[in-house]
Every structure is written in structure tokens, then in C-alpha cells.
Amino acid sequence: MHVVYPAVLAALLFSIGVYGVLARRNTILVLMSVELMLNAVNLNLVAFDVWLRDALHGGQVLTLFVIVIAAAELGVGLAIVLAVFRNRRTVALDQVHDLAEPGADREAEAAHARDGAS
To answer: What distance in Å separates the CA atoms of residue 116 and residue 33, rounded to the nearest whole number?
Structure first.
């Protein structure tokens, strides 16, 4: 098996994922793009494991770890997105730039002014 074909496919998938992370403003689509990048990494790990004919199959074992970590990352990411949506009613990254409570800036400025005055 030529290692070039899976490597080119993985590079293409990774590039699409990077474009999705940089260009998209929807949090769900950004998470999907990160998962696409992780799948490209998995494809590379398996392809190079087959190409090198590793007796311990380290690439395949590492792929399983990456899949588990990706699933945990997706679960935590979706939980954060759900919590932000419940509070802000949006999942657009442009509108969720400030995660502080409304009015928290004024309280912080008042506390800073009070501490600086004494």
C-alpha cells in the first residue's frame, strides 16, 4: 500500500478542518471542524502504522486513545455550548466574546477603584 494516498487524504481533511475552525462563527461547526482534524490525525496514525508494519501496532493503539479523548472533548464542548446557549440564546462565536455576567465589568471596576483609593 502506498502511504501517499492516505497522507494526501489526511492532509486534505486536516486543511478542511483548519478552514472550518478559522472561517466559521458557529460554535457547533467549529467543534465539528476540530473533530475532522482529529480524524485526519487518526487516518495518518493508522496509515503510517500499516506502512511501517509495527509489531506492537502503536499507531492503532494511539488512534484508540485519540478517539476516546476526542469523544470526551466533544462531550465537554457540547455541554459548554449548551450552557452558553441557555444564558445567551446564541451559539455564534462573535456574540459570545464576553462570558462574564452582565454588569460584572462595573462591579470589577468599582472594586478596583475602591481598592486603589485606600
So the answer is: 45
Which domains does the chain show, CATH number per domain?
4-117 (1.10.287.3510)
Find the angle CA(47)-CA(78)-CA(63) to the nearest 5 degrees: 15
Cell matching residue 35:
473533530
Q: How does pLDDT run across 16-57, given as a tens digit for each residue?
A: 999 999 999 899 999 999 999 999 999 999 999 999 987 888
Interior CA angle at 9 toward 3 and 60, to 5°? 60
Closest to 35 (Cα-Cα) out of 94, 89, 27: 27
Q: In which residue are the cell numbers 462591579 written?
A: 107
